[in-house]
Amino acid sequence: MERTQLKTTAEIITDFLSEYLAVDNQYLEDSQYHLVVNAEQTEFVLIEMGWRKKRYFNHMVFHLQLLDEEVWIHQNNTDVPIERHLIAAGIRSDAFRVSYLESPEALENCRPREQAENMAA
């Protein structure tokens, strides 16, 4: 994927998650969403953290990864069809992979090569 295309895809994902965060944070009283994006804009995590029934919690809502020409969906703990929203915003419909529907071999490609090699050593 060209760097310009990657940036466009990254912006689309960031915009969607930022909008999701802004809308839902209005209605949350004891918790709040936080968006985490790595410096390369290839990893996107939306977490919810706060208090429920006097217990602290922190959980992942969405986790997406840009890898080559694909958008990997590693986590979606909502009923939001995120692929549909991202397609409507301009990402190709054939660009999506869902990690929990993939083989273990395919998931190895989601790790940076040097990290996978270090783990195998």
Summarize the structure.
The chain is an alpha+beta fold. The chain is built from 4 helices and 5 strands, in the order H-E-E-E-E-H-E-H-H.
Descriptive account of the structure:
The longest helix is centred in the first third of the chain and has 23 residues, at 3-25. This protein has helices at residues 3-25, 82-88, 104-108, 113-120, and strands at 31-37, 43-52, 55-67, 70-76, 96-98. Helix content is 36%, strand content 33%. With 121 residues, the chain is an alpha+beta fold. Residues 115-121 have low confidence and may be disordered. It contains four helices and five strands, in the order αββββαβαα. It has a five-stranded mixed sheet, with helices on one face. The radius of gyration is 16 Å and the shape is globular. The protein starts with a helix and ends with a helix. A hairpin with a 2-residue loop joins β3 and β4.
- Termini gap: 30 Å
Report on the biggest sheet: 5 strands, mixed
In what order do the strands lie side by side in the largest sheet?
A: 1-2-3-4-5
The best one-word shape is globular
Secondary-structure element order, as H and E?
HEEEEHEHH
Structural class: alpha+beta
Strand fraction band? Answer: 25-35%
Compute the number of strand runs.
5
Radius of gyration: 16 Å
What is the mean pLDDT?
83
Query: Spans of 5+ residues with little confidence (pLDDT < 50)?
Result: 115-121
**Share in helix:** 25-40%
Count of alpha and pi helical runs: 4
Write the layout of secondary structure elements.
Blueprint: H1 3-25, E1 31-37, E2 43-52, E3 55-67, E4 70-76, H2 82-88, E5 96-98, H3 104-108, H4 113-120
Parallel strand pairs: 4-5
Antiparallel strand pairs: 1-2, 2-3, 3-4
